[in-house]
Amino acid sequence: MRVIAIDGPAGSGKSTVARAVASRLGLDYLDTGAMYRAVAFAALRVGVDPDDAERVARVAREVAIEVGEAVVVDGVDATIEIRGPEVTRAVSAVAANPDVRKELVQRQREWAERHAGGVIEGRDIGTVVFPDAHLKVFLTANDEERARRRAKEVSDLAYDQVAADIARRDHVDSTRAASPLAVAQDSVVIDTTGRSVDEIVDDILSRLGAA
Ligand code: CDP
């Protein structure tokens, strides 16, 4: 089973790069952030407070999540809503919940088994979910560029708001007790600031040749 782990903070280029690497290698692609967002969406939908650890953990164990072209949560197409401001506000607390992580990590490992590996993107893929990944990549970019990229995607929010939200989530993701965002000791760190997607993908593929 060949797993390529791509981790990094918001706006580092993870999704774009991970999708491109998967398509160049003919491997399947999994966005684990979409799974945490799906749990946050499911909790909000039934009126569960994202800070209520026990009830959110129950939601995580019971919810049906399909992550593909569309993200379907308990039969509801939530592709658009999981990227919206409400879910984005709630997701950090949901992702800091150790019982939620336990459930989703298990589902991620099962996904990889079923798909005979793949390109898997997140925050803890190289450190926790697949410590034996074939290749681990940690993408970074400077704060300004990350906020600029994300502001382009969510056209209804101003740059300042997006920058503040990214800074808040970076802080929570890096300081939480359960699987904080961290660079795996054997990962390749690539700064994507000012570099094109093709360049970064070529860089990763060339390392794979050497790996
Ligand atoms: O929008 P962005 O690319 O920053 O985030 P995402 O990849 O959609 O993930 C949303 C949130 O889920 C992150 O802020 C993390 O709190 C959490 N997450 C995580 O804890 N572990 C993962 N493997 C993936 C995402």
What does this molecule look like?
- The chain is of the alpha/beta class and 211 residues long.
- 53% of the residues lie in helices and 16% in strands.
- It is built from 9 helices and 8 strands.
- β3 (65-67) and β4 form a beta hairpin.
- α1 crosses α9 (197-210), α2 (32-45) crosses α5 (98-114) and α7 crosses α8.
- The longest helix is centred in the middle third of the chain and has 17 residues, at 98-114.
- It is globular and about 50 Å long.
- The mean pLDDT is 95.
- The structure holds cytidine-5'-diphosphate (CDP).
- Cytidine-5'-diphosphate binds next to α2, α4 and α8.
Strand line-up in the sheet with most strands: 2-6-1-7-8
- Radius of gyration, whole Å: 16 Å
Q: What's the count of strands?
A: 8
As a percent range, the share of helical residues equals 40-55%
Termini gap: 15 Å
Instruction: Look at the structure and give the mean pLDDT.
Output: 95
Shape: globular
- By secondary-structure content and strand pairing, the structural class works out as alpha/beta
Please indicate the percent range of residues in DSSP E strands (runs of 2 or more): 15-25%
Largest sheet: 5 strands, parallel
Order of helices and strands: EHEHHEEEHHEHEHHEH
Q: Count the helices. How many?
A: 9
In terms of quaternary structure, the protein is single chain
Low-confidence stretches: none
Q: Hetero groups bound? A: cytidine-5'-diphosphate
Key phrases:
211 residues, alpha/beta, 5-stranded parallel β-sheet, 9 helices
Brief characterization of the structure:
The protein is 53% helix and 16% strand.
Topology (elements, then pairings):
Elements: E1 2-7, H1 14-25, E2 29-31, H2 32-45, H3 53-62, E3 65-67, E4 71-73, E5 76-77, H4 85-95, H5 98-114, E6 117-122, H6 125-129, E7 135-140, H7 143-153, H8 159-175, E8 188-191, H9 197-210
Parallel strand pairs: 1-6, 1-7, 2-6, 7-8
Antiparallel strand pairs: 3-4, 4-5
Bound molecules: cytidine-5'-diphosphate.
